[in-house]
Specification:
The complex is a heterodimer of chains A (93) and B (404). By secondary structure, chain A is α+β, with helices and mostly antiparallel strands. Chain A has helices at 44-52, 59-65, 73-85; strands at 13-15, 19-24, 27-32, 38-41, 89-91. Classes of the chains: A alpha+beta (93), B alpha/beta (404). Chain A binds chain B through residues 20, 22-26, 29, 31, 33, 36, 38, 40, 42-43, and chain B through 8, 10-11, 14, 17, 20, 22-24, 26, 71, 73-74, 99, 101, 124. Chain A: This is Mycofactocin binding protein MftB.
Chain lengths: 93, 404
């Protein structure tokens, strides 16, 4: 599997500083003011996860805290990996 | 008339979500003025003369404030020629200062070295130079004598100033469809990026559409070219009607009118899309109570557009999921029904539909026309009009002077 390249679920993550989330009926639109890329968060629970990343010690802990079940977990990890690749989320340092 | 808003599905593909519209547009075109120094034969907004009712500087600033509140992260600014507005550079800075990024389209007339350096120093602005031929002959026949030189001079100035990611924007026509590789080479020469979009029969484009829209053979070649080069070329997702030829093209294959895109025109009228300046697609005016947000979120027209197409000839076609019936504006301005095939349907249904129109049919015309009324310096010769010299002494020092 290549989906986790560049994305370590055990690291602390956060929404990138130059990214704004615009709520939409299906989830949210994410805009990166630096690279001008647009991404779509395709569900409201995913929006909640992205917004909660900064409050937890790792992405894995965030998923647990947000009530993501084991069955849903791979889909969420892939979505977060995609967001990491497009620099919408970043590792907290 | 009361629009019944259909129920939005939960989850599923983004394209299905977009059909139901968004809380704010993703991609908003804002035409700042109808004034233009050129008189391109295919101008989508029939521009030329300024409209005395155009938004004032203060009104334009409050539109930007509202876009910031609605989190519209960037706008495509055009016209007319937006840079001929005296407050253009002020409004550019104002938008950028309010988290509304700007991409503006220009013929390059005002982009001298000083402006190019100013733009290169400004973050969060994109410049798009319009060019409709890879050679002066092809370009100037539709855009006017000297317009190729103006555009390439602007590109030179921008490249010299170190401006990055400049776009060269090309409307694909029968005359230039064979020049795609030349366009790519020209664009590469200036370190710029090529953007090609579909020619629609909007504005003055309706007058020349029969003559200038690409042939079926050219459309197939364009599709093949896009599949081979699509990752290095921008298209504004405007060629989705070609997806019915097979593999889907990258991007959003859906008419975004009133769903994810719209147009704000120079007098504040809000239309479903930049190619639909006609009263049938007018959703409201942002000078009215509630401003732009009310028009976007509550107009009856947009509510109607935000429902998936369920009837009409196209829904029975095997390719409907690929092309979604094509472009609303292209159908409307060629007199075709909106739930039927696109006039350039690559399966050939458009040609059949065009042939089946009433012989006496008058295609819809927009009442919004700001075309120049008198002759324009260097005006295009495509329509067989005699060319006017760019300067009175370009031909002979005494040409055009009354020597009587």
């Amino acid at each position: 599997m290549t989906i986790s390249v560049g994305f370590d679920v055990d690291l602390p993550w956060q929404k990138a500083g130059s990214v704004a989330l615009r709520p939409e009926p299906f989830g949210a639109l994410a805009y990166h003011f630096g690279n001008r890329k647009l991404s779509f968060l395709k569900s409201r629970p995913l929006v909640a996860v992205v917004e909660a990343l900064a409050e937890h010690p790792s992405a894995a802990a965030t998923l647990t805290a947000c009530g993501v079940t084991d069955a849903q977990r791979p889909a969420y990890v892939k979505a977060l990996a995609d967001l990491a690749r497009s620099q919408m989320i970043e590792v907290r340092t | 008339m009361t629009a019944v808003i259909p129920q939005r599905p939960v989850g599923g593909r983004l394209v299905d979500q977009f059909e139901y519209g968004l809380d704010a547009p993703i991609c908003l075109t804002w035409e700042l003025t109808y004034a233009c120094n050129l008189a391109c034969v295919h101008c989508l907004s029939s521009s030329g003369r300024r409209d005395p009712r155009e938004l004032s500087t203060a009104e334009a600033e409050s539109v930007i404030d509202e876009l910031q509140r609605m989190q519209v992260f960037y706008v495509n600014v055009g016209g007319g020629e937006p840079t001929v507005r005296p407050d253009f550079w002020h409004l550019l800075d104002y938008a950028i200062g309010h988290d509304v990024g700007v991409k503006f389209s220009t013929n390059g007339i005002k982009l001298d070295r000083a402006r190019a350096q100013q733009l290169a120093r400004t973050d969060y602005v994109d410049v798009q130079i319009s060019l409709d031929g890879a050679t002066p002959e092809v370009n100037d026949a539709v855009r006017g004598t000297g317009s190729f030189a103006t555009a390439t001079r602007a590109l030179e100035n921008l490249a010299e100033a170190g401006m990055r990611d400049v776009k060269v924007s090309v409307v694909v026509t029968r005359e230039n469809a064979g020049q795609l590789d030349e366009f790519k080479a020209l664009t590469d020469r200036y370190g710029a990026q090529l953007r090609i979009t579909r020619f629609r029969p909007s504005g003055r484009g309706a007058d020349v559409w029969d003559r200038l829209h690409p042939t079926q053979q050219q459309q197939r070649e364009l599709y093949a070219w896009l599949l081979a080069n699509g990752d290095r070329v921008l298209t504004g997702d405007s060629f989705f009607h070609l997806s019915a030829l097979g593999e889907a093209l990258p991007g959003l294959n859906l008419c975004g009118a009133g769903r994810v895109v719209c147009l704000i025109d120079p007098v504040g009228d809000v239309y479903a899309c930049p190619f639909a300046i006609h009263e049938n697609f007018l959703a409201g005016n942002l000078r009215d109570v509630g401003g732009f947000q009310r028009v976007w979120q509550q107009s009856e027209l947009f509510a109607e557009l935000r429902s998936p197409q369920t009837g009409g000839a196209c829904t029975k076609c095997a390719h409907f999921d690929a092309c979604r019936g094509g472009c609303m504006a292209a159908k409307f301005f060629t007199g075709l029904p909106l739930d039927g095939p696109d006039p350039e349907c690559v399966q050939g249904y458009g040609e059949t539909a065009l042939a089946a129109r009433d012989v006496g049919l008058a295609t819809p015309r927009s009442s919004v026309d700001h075309s120049h009324k008198g002759p324009v310096r260097g005006q295009p010769t495509l329509l067989g009009l005699p060319a006017m010299p760019v300067k009175i002494c370009d031909e002979s020092p005494l040409a055009g002077l009354d020597r009587g």
